[in-house]
Amino acid sequence: MGSDIDGVIEVRGPGGRWEFSLDLPEPALRRDRHARECLFGYGGALQLDRPLFDHRGVPDGVSEPVPSTCEELHHSHSHATWAEIAAVDWDAPLCDGPDWNHIGEWRPGPDGELALHATPWTPVEVLDAAEELFGEDLMPPEWPPGGEVHHDGAVWRPVTFTPRMFVPPDGDWGTVWTAMRERAAVHGDENVRLVVWFG
Fold first, then answer.
1. Which of 85, 89, 123, 198 has the fewest CB atoms below 10 angstroms from its CB?
2. Cβ pair 196, 23 in contact under 8 A
3. What whole-number distance in Å separates Cα of residue 32 and Cα of residue 27?
4. Residue 88: which residues within 8 A CB-CB, separation 6 or more?
């Protein structure tokens, strides 16, 4: 079991009233717990220090489709204007340091250059290889500066989470950003907002 996400994009008219414009596009409805935590602080598996729009609650003056009370089927509301989303640094750290449970798995990309492939739970085999390499049993955040382990065709490095890892511009939330950007071009960046909730 798990929670579903729902939401709307609203626009604020000349009279200052927020009005429904679009339901949350289908790709963003996928149960991607890491994206949800990165954006709205919902979930907690990654233990992020600074989700982007963390548990902000129900905004003032929501449009008719938005449930404004917290119940079993709609809770953990959050929101953000397009101005806020457009200002996000997608490569800024969401944590104060490398994660203690996950690690960066780097593999050659199409151009042959190393690219971040995944951020899995640190495999025991990688920890064993690190112990042999560094001479002591260390978790990735304790590795020497610049330390990395080569194992199973990949380069393993400590990883500090960023929004781009979980909400890439061309990923599931890209359709949301496009829809908001298009509306902001008409109504203004501060007059377009995303409102989400879970249930």
1. 89
2. no
3. 10
4. 52, 163
For residue 134, which of 145, 123, 124 has the smallest C-alpha distance?
Answer: 145
114 bridge partner residues:
108
User: Which of 46, 93, 95, 66 has its CA nearest to residue 193?
Assistant: 66
